[in-house]
């Protein structure tokens, strides 16, 4: 039996994870797979119950699971908390505890949503790429005492990487490129940073083991421009932590909505954490307005990368695409001004499940 730990989190997190679990239960039933779901607390919800954003029992449960599905964490309710017990520390903590070093963010232009993008249709059509971001090193990791001097007049942030840390995430990117269009863009700042020069060395060394993959090195400032002016050129992009954080958020505007952006955080084995890119949106929590599609698409990634159920993952992704093409959408999306087809969280989940089941019946 496979175990999926569900971390609903805060705000709309419980609503969108509930939708994704419904979709997963439906696909598992048709596939006759035996899976159990175990729910634990993280973020603000965990602070309220345990006084910490990441209780040990949550860590223990995640470490004994085959995959983790996360909703969202944070909200103004916990803004007054000290930095070390903010809800966001729960997310950072579980990534570290699980050793999740590679963050995958697929960026796909859905035909039904192209006109919602701030970019011209000609720039957005046929966009389909994945950003692979290193997740556990670089500038974001270092204790506050290391970063701020004793006299409080100087700060230092250290960008440190070991060759091993670079190799494992770049290897993951090459493996992904082999399954896609065999094109890898490595993004760095090798004209300035020594860490980027090592990054480029590692990419070139590993490229010898993947002769079928075309490798292109691009400086991060140029890549930021190209993501907007010519996003269709990309297939798989790989970069370090901070660059990946910035570029993946920039890339989210291509699709027209953060509500359509799934993600996967992986390590060397098949265990991974899957979550939508969007935040907890506490202002609409409990109102049925939350868009669950990014979480549902994250559940599809869970099937693909952690459970080796690629066919079932594709069924979910196809069903989401078809529902959008029919004009149905939650209020945060705009589809050809079809206001008469705005549906709530439960209704769009029902539509995805029904479409998925109909497609399964047709193919049987």
UniProtKB/TrEMBL annotation:
Source species: Sporolactobacillus laevolacticus DSM 442
Cofactor note: Binds 1 Mg(2+) or Mn(2+) ion per subunit.
Keywords: Amino-acid biosynthesis, Branched-chain amino acid biosynthesis, Cytoplasm, Leucine biosynthesis, Magnesium, Manganese, Metal-binding, NAD, Oxidoreductase
Isopropylmalate dehydrogenase-like domain location: 3-352
Pathway, per record: Amino-acid biosynthesis; L-leucine biosynthesis; L-leucine from 3-methyl-2-oxobutanoate: step 3/4
Residues marked Important for catalysis (site): 140, 189
Enzyme Commission identifier(s): 1.1.1.85
Protein's gene: leuB
Subunit structure: Homodimer.
CC cofactor: Mn(2+); Mg(2+)
InterPro entries linked: IsoCit/isopropylmalate_DH_CS, IsoPropMal-DH-like_dom, Isopropylmalate_DH
Similarity field: Belongs to the isocitrate and isopropylmalate dehydrogenases family. LeuB type 1 subfamily.
GO biological process: L-leucine biosynthetic process
Family matches, as HAMAP family: LeuB_type1
NCBIfam families per record: leuB (TIGR00169)
Molecular function terms from GO: 3-isopropylmalate dehydrogenase activity; magnesium ion binding; NAD binding
Binding site for Mg(2+): 221, 245, 249
Principal localisation: cytoplasm
Binding site for NAD(+): 75-88, 279-291
Function per UniProt: Catalyzes the oxidation of 3-carboxy-2-hydroxy-4-methylpentanoate (3-isopropylmalate) to 3-carboxy-4-methyl-2-oxopentanoate. The product decarboxylates to 4-methyl-2 oxopentanoate.
Catalytic activity annotation: (2R,3S)-3-isopropylmalate + NAD(+) = 4-methyl-2-oxopentanoate + CO2 + NADH
Residues binding substrate, per UniProt: 95, 105, 133, 221
Coiled-coil segments: none
Identification of the protein by name: 3-isopropylmalate dehydrogenase
GO CC, any one term: cytosol
Pfam families assigned: Iso_dh
Domain of life the protein comes from: Bacteria
């Amino acid at each position: 039996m496979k175990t999926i730990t569900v971390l609903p989190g805060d705000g709309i997190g419980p609503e969108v994870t509930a939708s994704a679990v419904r979709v997963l239960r439906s696909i598992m039933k048709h596939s006759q797979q035996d899976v159990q779901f175990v729910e634990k607390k993280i973020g603000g919800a965990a602070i309220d119950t345990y006084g910490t954003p990441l209780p040990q029992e949550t860590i223990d449960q995640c470490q004994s699971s085959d995959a983790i599905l996360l909703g969202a964490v944070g909200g103004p309710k916990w803004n007054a908390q000290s930095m070390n017990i903010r809800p966001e520390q729960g997310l950072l903590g579980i990534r570290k505890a699980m050793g999740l070093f590679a963050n995958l963010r697929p960026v796909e232009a859905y035909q039904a949503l192209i006109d919602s993008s701030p970019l011209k249709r000609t720039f957005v059509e046929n966009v389909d790429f994945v950003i692979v971001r290193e997740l556990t090193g670089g500038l974001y990791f270092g204790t506050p005492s290391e970063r701020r001097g004793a006299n409080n007049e100087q700060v230092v942030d250290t960008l440190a990487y070991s060759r091993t840390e670079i190799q494992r995430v770049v290897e993951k990117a090459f493996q992904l490129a082999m399954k896609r269009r065999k094109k890898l863009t490595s993004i760095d700042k090798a004209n300035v940073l020594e860490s980027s020069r090592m990054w480029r060395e590692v990419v070139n060394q590993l490229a010898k083991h993947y002769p079928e993959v075309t490798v292109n090195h691009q400086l991060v400032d140029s890549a930021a421009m190209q993501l907007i002016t010519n996003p269709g050129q990309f297939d798989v992009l790989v970069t370090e932590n901070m660059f990946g954080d910035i570029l993946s958020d920039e890339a989210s505007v291509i699709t027209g909505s953060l509500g359509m952006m799934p993600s996967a955080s992986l390590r060397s084995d098949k265990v991974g954490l899957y979550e939508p890119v969007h935040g907890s949106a506490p202002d609409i929590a409990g109102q049925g307005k939350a868009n669950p599609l990014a979480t549902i698409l994250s559940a599809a990634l869970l099937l693909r990368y952690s459970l080796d159920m690629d066919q079932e993952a594709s069924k979910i992704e196809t069903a989401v695409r078809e529902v959008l093409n029919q004009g149905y959408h939650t209020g945060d999306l705009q589809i050809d001004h079809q206001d008469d087809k705005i549906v709530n969280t439960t209704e769009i989940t029902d539509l995805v499940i029904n479409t998925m089941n109909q497609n399964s019946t047709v193919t049987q």
